[in-house]
Amino acid sequence: MTKPETPRYPRVLIKLSGEALMGDAGFGIDAEVLKRLAAEVRQMTAVSVQVSMVIGGGNMLRGAGLAAAGMDRVTADHMGMLATVINALALQDALEHAGMYCRVMSAIKINQICEDYIRRRAVRHLEKGRVVVFAAGTGNPFFTTDTAASLRAVEINANLMIKATKVDGVYAADPLRNPGAERYAHLHYDEVLARKLNVMDATAVVLCRDNHMPLRVIDMSREGAMLRAVMGEDVGTLVDGGGGRR
To answer: Which strands make up the sheet holding 11-16, listed edge to edge?
Structure first.
């Protein structure tokens, strides 16, 4: 039997948007998407990668959108945090059905259905081979789940953050509207900020830059893309401090 290669990134954090769970539907959670995600994560844990995840709540509601419609921003953001908990529990169920152990850790206290977020406990779960899903963002209003993902990746000493999207990397323009848009293979954090590229919000990118956290943007619908990323293959777009675009 061929021994599997050693992953280049033994501990990763995957950032998923809530919309990623909708599939082709316009709202809610598609069970088939959950199954496919669980299978992708299973491939990584099979080669001893420690996997953590942060998921948004945009498939349920967006706090910023409610605030724009007149709701109190803090209340709207708290509602958005609760939406991420719903998604995290759905992910946990899918991962456990796929044969993995999973813990959901919330930044706000909901300890009848999930654990409180404690950094040392999260790291211990990862060391024991459990997948950890971080819910409720940072626990504070006015911060996106992108920022929460960067923060958690830094706190747990992840080796790589993966942003799983619907496109295969970072483009100079929206590739769905402009099929001829250039895809970048490699970007520096400062290039992302200066060009206002739609990767993550500025706070999240600055957190990655200041803490030397590499970020790889991949297409989550491409089978095996996550595994290829943790093995160090050149998939999607890499954002780091190592020399910029190529």
So the answer is: 115-116, 102-106, 131-135, 50-55, 11-16, 160-165, 215-219, 237-240, 186-188
Residue ranges of domains in the chain, CATH in brackets: 11-240 (3.40.1160.10)
* Predicted TM-score of the model (pTM): 0.92
Instruction: Give the torsion through C-alpha atoms of 11, 17, 21, 23, to 10 deg.
Output: -120
Identity at 160, one-letter amino acid code: L
**CB burial string 123-147: b at 16+ within 10 A, e below:** bebbeeebbbbbbbbbbebebbbbb
Bridge-based pairing of strands 183-184 and 170-171 is antiparallel
Amino acid (one-letter) located at 69: A
Residue 229 Cα to chain centre, angstroms: 13
Chain segment 56-80, per-residue pLDDT in tens: 998 888 777 888 889 999 999 999 9
